[in-house]
Amino acid sequence: NNYADSPLKLLGSSNALNTYPSLISGFMGKASSASNNIFYCNKVKDITMNHKQVTLFNMFILNVFKILHLFEKHVLRNLRDYTEGGFRLKECLRYSPLFCERGYKPPISICKSLKRKLSTSRTNDKLDPNWVTGFVDAEGCFSVIIEISEDFKWKVRISFEINLHEKDKYILYKLQSFFGVGAVYHRPDRQKSVYRVTNVTYIKNVIIPHFTNYPLVSKKAIDFLLWSKVVEIIFNKDHLTKEGFFRILSYYVSINKGVSKKVLGFYPNILPADKPVINLPEHLNPHWVSGFVAGDGGFSIYVRSAKDYALGEKVDSRFHIAQHSKDLELMHLFIQFFSCGKVTVRSNTSTPRCDFYVQDTSFLLTKVRSHFDKYPERIRRIGS
After folding, report:
1. What's the half-sphere exposure (Cβ side, CA atoms, 13 Å) at 172?
2. Residue limits of the Homing endonuclease LAGLIDADG domain (predicted)?
């Protein structure tokens, strides 16, 4: 590699570059003209290289192109999100110290651009895995779908999905980028968007490992564990056997949404699988809390009557989280986490609900706001 450090010295007073300007100019998309190219070496003149010099120079050119290719492959492709439209390989050559077009000035300094872009908060915009788990605890769904075809054959499908209003579809794209699998679909007629993963291999190798390493906290963890067993059966092709299919049915019945009437009509005596016991953590992860609030939390301002006020009304603010009453213990953990707030149970609704809420203005400022200043919700709720 010594010749690569100073290749032109090997040429001495040789002027062997009458061929290479056209090669380089063509690479940069310019007309072939040696006069339009400046080579930073005063020793280059118009003569012909001998065989050894041609070989060495060819090796040098190949090395340059190889280095540029590796640079583009391993560095630039990872920086495209941080640059104005990304780079092209020929632009790297154009800006290089060895080959430069006469009178051409780059529109922006590459070094300054990279330094500025890499120093922005955008590098910190990557979703925290605990945040993702918290958001899925609030909005995610682990589904088992059992269908019967026209020839009376049963089909089993699985999916991991998150459904949101279409205005929040950018959240789904962030989650798709985080997991690196699945796709985002849109239903304009329903104003809905959904991030969905249905590929069994992706689910087994990407989705399940994430929630194994960063466990769900709410009762949705029960659905996840039962759903994971169905994934394992399908991955091993055991769902094609009668025994495997009936095992899936038992898990299917135990998952939150329960069995469909159609399936129950064919298999009225399905025995549900035992549900695993989920223990709450001693302390909630702050990133998980922010993710969960981004999905199921709310910040509201309302007016209520107040006789001791001149106008007879008072403006109040509130931070609240609503859940099914089966997660009542989790709601009490929020009191411990924020060191404030109350929990109430609503039994007058069609679905039993429980709420954690904070109304005291001083607590909203010192406890709630301080948490989200440190662990922002990042993409929803705040400012909405």
Report:
1. 23
2. 133-231, 290-376
Containing structural domain, residue 133: 129-266
> pLDDT by residue (tens digit) across 90-117?
444 444 444 444 444 444 444 444 443 3
318 and 209 housed in the same domain: no
What are the structure tokens assigned to 195, written together?
A: 């991030």
Query: Which of 143, 139, 181 shows the shortest CA–CA distance to 159?
Result: 143
- The whole-number pLDDT of residue 262 equals 81
Q: Quote the crossing angle between the two packed helices 220-235 and 242-254, to the nearest 10°.
A: 170
Neighbours of 181 (CB within 10 A): 16
pLDDT digits (tens, 9 = 90+) for 189-203: 889 999 999 999 999
Is residue 279 included in any domain, yes or no?
no
Q: What DSSP state is assigned to residue 133?
A: H
Dihedral pair phi/psi, residue 216, rounded to 5°: -65, 150
Residue ranges of the chain whose pLDDT lies below 70: 1-50, 54, 71-125, 150-152, 378-384
Asked whether residue 41 falls in the same domain as residue 104, the answer is yes
By DSSP bridging, strand 37-39 and strand 297-305 are unpaired
